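User: Some background: our group keeps a shared notebook of sequences we're curious about, and every so often someone picks one and asks for a predicted structure to add to the entry. Today it's my turn. The entry only has the sequence so far, pasted here. Could you supply the structure so I can complete it?
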Amino acid sequence: MLVAHLIRQLRKAGVLPLFAKRLSIAAPIAIALAVGFVSSAGGALAQNSQLQTIVLYAGMHRVTAELAIKPAHRAKGLMGRKSLAEHRGMLFVFGRADTHCFWMENTFVPLSIAFLRDDGSIVNVRDMEPLKRDQHCAAEPVRLALEVNQGWFDERNLGPDMVIRGLPKLP
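Assistant: Of course. Here's the predicted structure to add to the notebook entry:
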């Protein structure tokens, strides 16, 4: 599945047509590494980030989230990204509980955000449209928010009071 995705990404980037149409399975990977595609595409294969990641669970569902702990990382969030890989996201960790609000300025990917209590239980989930300045706020003071591709929570029937496990320890 990863190889097929890689081939589609190479074709979309215009790299694959430069070479023979019929390539072995290893060839697209070698080409991608040779041209630096994985590190420079900024797409679903490369999250274009050097942030630490954490694996979170909601029931049997898994999501790998980048940790946005520093103010500069929280301020940037997923801005500028053209895509977000399936089962990937960003966990925002704030120093104090507040009714934190998010917007989608300079964010090209439709997202859903879950505001989380310290114990991982979901307070509320909001869908956010790309490039909008509409405010999407926590329904109560929280220190955590998890952004994923839009619909991720709905598709898994995850909503208020359900628990996200694997969160980092909070001070």
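Suggested note for the entry: The chain is about 20% helix and 30% strand. The beta strands are 53-58, 61-68, 88-98, 101-102, 111-116, 122-128, 136-137, 142-149.
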